[in-house]
Each structure stands twice: as C-alpha cells, then as structure tokens.
Structures
1.
Amino acid sequence: MTLKSSLFKNPKVKEKDLLSLEIAEVKEIADLIFKRLNRKIGVLEAIEQSVDEKIRLLETLIRKAESLKTEAPTSDRHNEIVSLGRKGMQGREIAAALDIPVGEVELVLSLRGVKSPANN
C-alpha cells in the first residue's frame, strides 16, 4: 500500500497534505526530466564540438585544394619556361608572360642549360 492510498483512507488527512504530496511527486518527476535533459545537452554539446572540428578540417582541406587547383605544377611551369627560352624569349619577357619572378626564370633556364638572349 502506498503512502498516497493510505492518505485517502485516513479522513483526518487534510487537502493541504495531499497537495504537498502531489507537489513532491511533480518535483521528483521534474528532477528526473532535468537530469535526462542535462545528459542529452552534454551529448549534443560533444556532437557540436566534433562537428565544429570537422568543419574546420574541411575548410582547411578546401583551401588547400583551391590553392593546388590555381597553382600550375612546378614541372609544367619549368617546362614552359624552358620552351619559351628556347624560342628566344628573354628572361624578363618570360617572367612577365608567366607572372613569376625573373630570378626563378633565370634559375630554371640556367639549370636546364638554356641560354636566353641578353636582356636589353
């Protein structure tokens, strides 16, 4: 027999006592619900943190992919420098055409043994 049912059998129990019992039960249920909610909030915060980390990683990978996509591979660029040098273009002209430093052009040409015309 529960406390609640025993209270109903006792005619001396006041309505105030019944109300106090109901309030206590509601508080107990509310406490359980809040505990569950707090656990769920903790899980959601952990998931959110994990997602944020993955977003940062993905953004980093996207930036790397975009930079690789816009940059010509070094060997292709070097081959183009050599090709233009063999066609008689000057180092400064090659640098301007490919939008790269003159020093890089001169280094690649000298390493590949290509003589470019003297700069005017």
Note: Residues 72-120 form one domain.
2.
Amino acid sequence: MKLPKKLKNKYNAQSSKCIIGHYHQSIGEAQYCNKLTFLKNAKEIKEIQYQKPYELCVNGQKICNIVVDFVVTWSNGKKEIHEYKGFETPIWNLKHKLFLACYPDIPYIVKRRKDLASWLCGFYK
C-alpha cells in the first residue's frame, strides 16, 4: 500500500497507520496513538485531538505556530499535550520552550523513541 505523498517525512521516518485508521509521521507515534486509543476505550480518556495547532505569541505578537501530536482530555477534564519525538531538532526545542512559556497551565508530556520499549512493554501484555 502506497502512503499519501503529503506524509513523506523529511527525517526518513516511516509513516504508519494506527488502529483507528489515520496516518502518523512515524511508527512510534502510531503506536502511541494506539495506547491513547486503548485508554479512551477504557473510559480513562474523554477526548483525543490529533495534530492540533497552537499559536505562539510573545507580548501580543505572533511568533510562530506549533502543531502538537495529541491533545488529551482525561475523564476528570484535565487537558494535556502529548508529543512523540524520535529525536529533537533545534527548531522543535525552541517551539517547545515557547509553548511552555505561552501555555504554562497545560502540561506538555514528551515521549521519546528511546523510551518506546519501556512504556509499551507493559501495555501489550
């Protein structure tokens, strides 16, 4: 099956489909989506938003946008940003710091490729 052209990744990551049928930029991101979907089906998560853009503004002036992988709303109403990163680029590091400064009340959880085995190990047993 040929993947859509728009999902070709400049970092040579392999695009992958998650269990609910949409494509992600990497296999790890798709696996993380699967985990979040499982938690949603178990009623621990109320809502998952995918690839949501946020404006990053400083002193009322828009600097740039960041598109986060997942916005998770837990059953208790608490919102979190969940991001899967194979590796970090200098631009992402800057946008991440700007996000933390612009949205200090929204927790930003980053899962990295090196952590993949440990957080999926117990999940698929």
Note: The chain has a mean pLDDT of 84.
